[in-house]
Structure formats: C-alpha cells, structure tokens
Amino acid sequence: MKIKVLFSMAVLVAATSELRAQYAEDALRFSRSQWGSTARFKAISAQTAVGGDLSSVGGNPAGTGLFTRSEISLTPQFSAHSNSSKYLGQQAIARGDKLGLANFAIVFHSRAAKPKGANLNQGWLSYNFGIAYNQTQGFNNRLNYSGTNPENSIADFFAESATNNFGPPNTLQVGSLERMAYDNYLISYDNRDRYYFPGTDVNNVQTKNDVRFGQQSEVNFSFGANYSNQFYVGASIGIANINYNTNDKYSEKGFNVTENNNYDLSYRQSQLTRGSGINGKIGAIYRPVPNVRLGASFESPTWYTIDDSYSEGLDTKYGKSKVDSQFVNDDEFYEFTYGLRTPLKISTGISYFFDDKGFITADLDYVDYSTINFSVANTGDSQVISDNNKAVLSRYTHAINFRLGAEYKIENLMLRAGYGSQGDPYVATDQKSFTISTYSGGLGYRFNNYYIDMTFQRISSNSERWPYALNDIPSAIADVRNARNNVFVTIGTRF
C-alpha cells in the first residue's frame, strides 16, 4: 500500500450508529440532577420538610416561608473523582478534581402588614422572596479501560454498520464512518453475497480513554409565605442550563489479515452540548404539632432546547517496526438541535424536632424516567426523535429516591449526617443495580449573625461502558465503579 491521506468535507447529517451521539443516554443523564443546596443541607441530605435554609430557594420553595430574617450565603465546592474499571480481565483507575461554585443564594424577608391590635401570630405573617444559583450536577469525570479482545474488533462494528446502512462501496457516503473504515482497509466487501466483513484478526489490544466535563445548573426565583407559623406555601421558577462536553479516544492494535500487516487505529469522538430550559416548583410544609413538619413538593418537567455538536474521525497506521502506510481523516461534524422534556418529580418529607437540640428528617421522591420525551426543534430529523423516544420507553422505568438526615446542636456547634439513594432508572434485565448512593457528614458553627458550615460528601455508583456494540455478538463490557468525593463550605449571614 502507498501512503494515503484522506481529506473529507464535513457533512451535516443526523447520527445513525450506536457509537454516535447517544441522545437517550444524554437525556437520562440530564434528568438525574439533584437539588442544589448549601453545605448544611448537603450534610443532612433530606430537606423537603425542614425549610428555613437557603437551599429551599432551589428545593421545596415552601421552606422559603420559614425565614424570619433576610439571609445571604455563598458555597464553593471542591470535587475529586476516581473510577475503577475492569475490562476483558484487566483493571485500570482514573482520577481528577475540580474547584467550583455549588450555591449562591439570598432571601429577602418581609413582614405582612397587620392592622393595629391584630393577633401577630395568626393569618399571613410574612412573605419572603429568594434568588439562587445552584449547580445541580457536575459532569467532570475521567475513565480509562484496556484489554485484549479474543472475540472481535471494532472493525466488526464498522462492517456491520456498512452492511446495514449501505450497498456496494460506491454507495458509501463520503465522510461517513463506514467510508473511513473502508478507505482505511479495515473492512472489505463481498460482491457475491453483498456484505462487508472485517479485515482485522482477533486478540487485538483495545484501549478507551473518556473525558467528561461541564455542569448542569439552575437560577431559581422563589416565593414563600407563612400562615400562622403552622402552614407554609411556596412556588419557584427555575432557569436551567446544560454545559456538557466529551472527548473520547478509542485505540486498537492488532493484525490485519487482508493486508497481512500490523495495524494501529485511532477513533476519536467529541461532543459539545449546550441547553437551556425552564421549570417550576410548588410546595407546602405543615406543622400538625410544634415538633413535627410534613412537607411535599411538585417539580414540573424541565423543557429544554438543546444544541448538540458531535464529531468523529478515524486514522489508521500500518507497519510493525516502521510506518509502511498511513490513512488520516479529517473529523466529520454532525449538528443536531432538539427539544427535551425531563420527568416531573414528586417529593414528600417528614421532620421531627427535639426542641432546641436538633432534628431528624426523611424524604421520598417519585420519578418516572420513561416519561422523558424528545421533540423536533426547527427542522430536526423526526426519525432520530422517534427512535430515541422508543429507546426511552424500552430502557427506562420509574424510580424511588430516598434520603435520611439528622442535625444535633451543642450550643453554637451543629453536627450533621445524611444518606441518600437515587433509584435505578433502568428496566431490569439482570441482577445489576445502577442506584446512586450518597453519604455525607458535616459541621456548622453559629456566631452572632454569621455562620459557617462544612460538609464532606461521597457519591458512589456502578455503571457499564462498552466501546462498540454488535447486533448478534455479545460486546465486551467495562464494569466501572464510580466514586466522587465533594467538600462544601458555606459562609453566610443574616441581616
């Protein structure tokens, strides 16, 4: 073979293969966000029935009604993640960290006007307004896995996709991944039986490096009211934002039978996703007796408009001790804009207060991920929308989230702890569970009108990743154990 360099013009088409932008998986990712909050509520985890904290601006807005003074706070966050993966019998670990802003909030307290001589503890007593910025999810993550595959190659995927989507080689679309693979001599065409087949042998070394970064956030505008120090109601509007980025690289080294030479391929993928949306929340907190609070909130779906830019490129080198030939492709870009509706969330909670010594609290959420829905935006591809809505219905189901927490006061010092679990959103196919568990603990100190809170939080989960998927042949899967350690510090004052 002679040295050959391929330069292809970008074509704007909708994604068509399993390796391209996974909108259904992205939709689930964007639907599993959490309420942003201060370090205090990060520590106790549950918050629906507590209130009186700046976290209520982005959580149960009824909690805004419990404020008796105006308040402002700032919460920076340090996050460190580690992923342990096992792929084809080999293990690998990847780590990373980031500093950011978790929460900034302010509540303005306003007493209700009362006529002279009226009972100051009956009727509507106060109306409070809050504004907050909340990071509801951080995407920063790094994952590596590698192993020797004795069964198949990514060229099997290229051949399968070319057979299913195209005819003879002259029909392969310029710039498509299948055309790149054919021009790189990774797949060949059988003219008699009319199918593509891989040119690579088995026992090839496969390596995948994935990098994720960005965040999901909300700006919330909240209103809460206090009725007779017994019933609190609230409502809020949230302006949501998505900034999600990926840079992935798949490498494979082995022997190409048809070319009778060693090969070294590099398959690159990147994704840039930007989205904005709006949602609403309403909530209530009720005190049937002084020591008990019952809370409930309803969070509407978030209606997003999302712009997705995806690119991919495939390069291949041949030769053992030196480069005999090289095939280089420009990255191809695919733009797609779509509408996304996330599930609604219903939350309930109960808190019990031990006079001035602290409290215990618990929350329960119901979320139905099968109600995730895609819609066409502008002149988007309706077939892609339909396919992903079908994928949502077949993959996802409802889930129950629960959270437990407690706070104990020792004069001006507060001790806190909590636990939370986000339920498995997938339709059960085996014994594996994909819940997300959160463990937290923290301290708080109050002095005059100021306070400082610190929380350590650990989030752990299991996931599966695979570099490519074949229709009739089991794919090699990387079993991944994810762990994220977060530290939150809140500094605030009442005025």
Task: Please describe the structure with a list of short key phrases separated by commas or semicolons.
5 helices; 495 residues; single chain; 14-stranded antiparallel β-barrel; mainly beta; Porin; two-stranded antiparallel sheet
How do the strands and helices of this protein lay out in sequence?
Blueprint: E1 4-6, H1 23-31, H2 39-44, E2 71-87, E3 90-111, E4 124-138, E5 141-149, H3 154-165, H4 177-183, E6 187-190, E7 195-198, E8 204-227, E9 231-256, E10 261-289, E11 292-299, E12 303-318, E13 325-329, E14 332-341, E15 345-353, E16 358-368, E17 373-376, H5 382-395, E18 398-410, E19 413-422, E20 436-447, E21 450-465, E22 478-494
Parallel strand pairs: 1-13
Antiparallel strand pairs: 2-3, 2-22, 3-4, 4-8, 5-8, 6-7, 8-9, 9-10, 10-11, 10-12, 11-15, 12-13, 12-14, 14-17, 15-16, 16-18, 18-19, 19-20, 20-21, 21-22
Helix pairs in contact: 3-4
How would you describe this structure to a colleague?
There is one protein chain. The protein is mainly beta. It has one domain: Porin (Beta Barrel). It contains five helices and 22 strands. The strands form two sheets. A 14-stranded antiparallel barrel has the order 2-3-4-8-9-10-11-15-16-18-19-20-21-22. Helix 3 packs across helix 4. The radius of gyration is 27 Å and the shape is elongated. The N terminus is likely disordered.
